[in-house]
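Hello,

Following up on my earlier ticket. Below are the two sequence lines again, exactly as submitted.
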Amino acid sequence: MRAAVGCRGSRDVGPAVLRVADVTYSVGKAGGLRVLDRLSLEVKQGEILGVFGPNGCGKSSLLNVISGYARPDSGGVELLAGTETRLSYLAQDYAETLLPWFRARTNLLLPVRYRGGSRQEAEAALAEVVSFFYDPVDLRKFPYSLSGGQQQILALLRCLIQQPQLILLDEPFSAINLHRMFALRQRLALWAKQRKIAMMIVSHNLDDLMVVCDHVLAVAGPPLAILADVETPFAHPRSREDLCSSEMIQAKTAIYSST
Amino acid sequence: MMSARLPPRGGSWLVTSGVGFLAVLAVWQLVCLITVAGKPLVNPLFLATPGETAMAVKAWAASGDLLWDATDSLRRVVYGLALAMAIGLPLGVIFGLSEGAQRSTRGVMDFLRSIPPIVVYPVSQLILGPFDASRVGVVVFGATTVIVLATSEGVRNCSKVRQRCNRLLGATWRHVVTSIVLLESLPAIVVGIRTAVSLSVIIVVVTEMLVGAKYGLGVRAAAAQSTSATPTLYAVILVVGIIGLGLNVLLVRLERLIGRWKFAC
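Thanks for your patience. The regenerated structure is below:
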């Protein structure tokens, strides 16, 4: 089964920033496991899309193909945003992507350094992100003296510093403790909504997606197939009470029953 | 509770290594003292006592030659190493990043490394003349291949995930080299440079023993041999050892300074 999915209704979203058209992708050499089979989907500006599915169904492969880490066998991935920094990707091996010889602060500001930004620009970006997320990590430390969860937050915030139009997140909260996580999820959704950044979040934890996403694709595979496209209720930021409401439970039931 | 075992820092080196040095000194002195049937076990012509050696070092220093010998030898080593690094580091990075460059040059590099550098000395003299330039040339020849090999291996073993992700974050190739690859392969590069230092000291001393130099540790060794000044011979060995050791310790310290992030956890 395949489906072309966009954001429906009167939601406050703009033109498409990502178009995946008829993409087929196999792992390994020719004749390997077919993970994506003529898959199509679309993500619009400011839209937050969740992808919920079991382990090994091809969720991460989809993000790898979109980000350019992996090359599809056939079909096209089109990034339609106009600015130069278009795409940011938090992969599952986030810890290895940090640079252990730089302190957390320098790591966080790498995108500014890479684009040749000024000191003032870096200071401004840092202040904005750090205050928005309530000062989440000790920026004077080296990455490997941070906890796994703090490393993950650092890598996530580094994606935001990059100021992309589309952010791909692969299990972005997997190492972050529950106590911290709720506020982080709320703030992340708010950040994206305020700046009209599109996000595509892959997870096998449905609650993550219910708090952050506008709608959730229930998927199975391989090859990855979209079983249902369910809208999540309430405006951002969503509260703990929203998560326990009957509307939310109804939406979750719709997702679970489709898998 | 587990406590991580960290390499020792700071001044403790002299204390812990001092025990070993004292032991060697004691054995040396003992061998000199042993007599068999009224005759010393080892002919004094072959082996000077620690005391005689110390006196020889003192006389050597007092004459002012020690300073000149040591600085001239060190200068040759440092010039040669600096040039070897200037050539070897960029080449090593290129070979490490490019599989093609690595494969097409592997045979040549192995061939060059198989040539004992001293063999090149006559050719070096022919081209660069009988003075310092030819000695430095041999050092460059010997040290460059060592540094290229260590650097390219270090760079090749760097995390591909890290480079790929940072490319996506906007890093240019210049950033990948200066902010990522060189720092990640630093430990391997330092090992290469330490090997190159030892090799350079050997090359400089040997070339000095052969011909032409006025001052140099090798010059002093050759002179002492021709006059059968055994204590001076041992004094030269001692000083060459101390200089080599000093350079190595200096490099380890430097690596620890640059790579302090490794010890910060």
